[in-house]
Amino acid sequence: MERSWSLLTGENGFYNFTKGDKMKYTRILIVDDSATSRMIIKRCFEIAGYDDAFYSEAEDGINALSLLEDNDADLIVTDLNMPRMDGSNFIKKLRVKKECKEIPIIIISSTASPELIEDFQEMGIKGIIRKPVSPDKIVSILGGSNGLEQEQRTEA
Amino acid sequence: MVWNKSKERKPKKEKISKALIESVIKTFEEMAFLDVESIPEMNRINFNQIMYINILNPLSGGIAIYLPNNCKKNIIENIYSEDMSNLTSKEIDDCLLEILNVIAGSFLGRLYKTCVRYRVDIPRVVFDESGLETGWDDFAEVCFDAEGERFKVAVAVS
Predict the structure, then answer these.
(1) Is the CB of B102 less than 8 angstroms away from the CB of A131?
(2) Which residues from B are below 8 Å from A35, CB to CB?
(3) Minimal Cα–Cα distance from A34 to chain B, Å?
(4) pLDDT tens, A15-57?
(5) Which of A71, B6, B106, B107 qualifies as a FRET site for A129, CA 20 to 30 Å off?
């Protein structure tokens, strides 16, 4: 997987790992133990321009892996702190599956910090957003569904 | 704001209080679309719900939110864009716990700007104060006004 990534400072609560691509994601899996959070994330994605995507939801990593057996996703959005199987273990197990190795992942977590970058930079993570999520943060990570270029600062 | 202390006051406590106040204000603004400001200590807030979250790293502690019904209602209805009576207890609790989760993360992010991994526990509802963790060295309580409705947040650290 291409390791071309640039790091935003995270002052606005997000860390972008990969250069913005113009892909339009149509099958988005949201993984979070909070139903409220899943609702907010979906709403933010819709406002960010992904209103015609198909959304599926899972309440933890185990549920998400099960869902992915029958339904594919072209983007996964996951929390980290979840019971049963947390986000970190979910991502590790996901990347072992041949058909899931390349699915882009965004982490959305209340405890997101630059230190997480060390943990996830080898796992094909597009970026990390610290909650609360907002349409602006999503657009900054993904470039918006209309392919707007993101402003990026390369790591010094 | 009230500090109950076993040790002499140190500057660090002010930083903790500031981080707490800022995180509550910002989270309520961005998640619940409510204007919140910290207010002087009140004699009593008649709360109907307490939520609590343990902070695990880089410090040990916890944050509790004490909410009266009207405040709870405003939060829920702003987030869900729906009358609270249409929601289940589970949905209501989940919403409030998520707010607390975000406050905790924001609090840690403000306290420790860089070079730290944050860890918090899963937030939970407690029925009364006997359900809260005890034995902390220091704790503080801050009262807030959310567009006319008052609530309280307490932070404890050791």
Answers:
(1) yes
(2) 90-91, 94
(3) 6
(4) 666 555 556 899 999 999 999 999 999 999 999 889 999 999 9
(5) A71
